[in-house]
Amino acid sequence: MDKVRVAMVGCGGICNFHLSHLTQFEDVVFAGFMDIRPEKAREKAAAAGAGKVYEDYLKMLDDARPDALYICVPPDQHGSIEFEAIRRGIPFLVEKPMALGMELAHSIRDAAGKAGIVTAVGFQDRYLDIIEKTRELLEGRVVGLIDGAWLGGIPGPYWWPTYATSGGQIVEQNIHLFDMLRYLIGEPAKVYCAGGRGIVRREGYDLHDYSSAVITFRSGVVATLFTGCYLDRNVPGKNGLHFRCVDADIRYTLRQSVEIDTGSMVQIFRKQADQGVAEDRAFIDAVKTGDQSLVRSPYADACKSLALTLACNESIATGKEISLI
Ligand SMILES: NC(=O)c1ccc[n+]([C@@H]2O[C@H](COP(=O)([O-])OP(=O)(O)OC[C@H]3O[C@@H](n4cnc5c(N)ncnc54)[C@H](O)[C@@H]3O)[C@@H](O)[C@H]2O)c1
């Protein structure tokens, strides 16, 4: 296929992100936009300079016949969109978190696997040059402990402040760092997570304001990850992961840089390339060639990061350590 016909369902904030990359690609054309708020779909079609606006995603799939579908709806809106795409053999990129329960996520995973379509999940950090550098710096080093944090305020989307609609901050937001731990360190064996409330006072909000998760990996590495949305500000430059190696400290600052400190020398590597462009390019190339291996976060792999974050919620709720084996 020379041109990939892309359609989008859910035309809010993250749709802008993907659109800003896709409009740079000469081999992408826009087939359709759909949102339950039609003005959002109209806005995106205007920004793309092409693409029909639909009020029904099924009609869009049948009428626009896209080669690829971007699914950018809130976390509680998944299921039938994916199954209808799979039924029609349409490859899709779905935003994280791809579901709020593993039963649904696994049934989408299995159906997509059976259909043999290309899938991708929006773990954009897997395409960061500084994550590649972190991987390189960790190579051959012995890590014992890792600590990390994603703290900030409450993001704007209307669906964010409740567990029923977002899954909470660990599942909706810090899932990126949990996924980075899996990407860089390997698979987890168990997790214990404690959470607290009482700082954020806001009508309709039912999330934990903060939590601390202790993850034991199958390799024996222990990581502690903080998550919090009680700050009155965002703190770029303060979030990320800190790997305590035998012979060095490696500090990944979220989407900005990675630094290695061996005691005798410090080297800082700053982000040079746009990971969002790389993420969308990889998905479009995978659709064109049918080569799933171009995608760094296929649906089946992303399910394991989702399971880890949902296990944190379960641990907070039950007070128990959750096994992931
Ligand atoms: N990968 C990332 O870095 C990243 C960043 C931000 C958001 N996200 C994820 O993207 C998803 C969307 O987040 P957002 O910030 O764009 O939210 P948003 O609220 O800005 O946009 C979501 C859009 O979906 C529409 N919508 C809701 N239900 C729908 C349905 N059933 N069918 C069609 N449209 C529907 C809403 O009207 C809204 O316009 C979330 O899962 C979020 O976690 C990922």
Structure, described:
With 325 residues, the protein is of the alpha/beta class. It contains ten helices and 15 strands. The strands form two sheets. It has a nine-stranded mixed β-sheet with strand order 14-13-12-11-7-10-9-8-15. A six-stranded parallel β-sheet has the order 3-2-1-4-5-6, sandwiched between helices. The mean pLDDT is 98. The structure holds nicotinamide-adenine-dinucleotide. Residues 9-15, 34-37, 40, 72-75, 77, 95-96, 122, 124, 157, 172 line the site of nicotinamide-adenine-dinucleotide.
Core attributes:
325 residues, alpha/beta, Rossmann fold, Dihydrodipicolinate Reductase, domain 2, 2 domains, 10 helices, 15 strands, binds nicotinamide-adenine-dinucleotide
Specify Rg, calculated over alpha carbons.
20 Å
**Low-pLDDT stretches:** none
- Helical fraction: 25-40%
Number of strands: 15
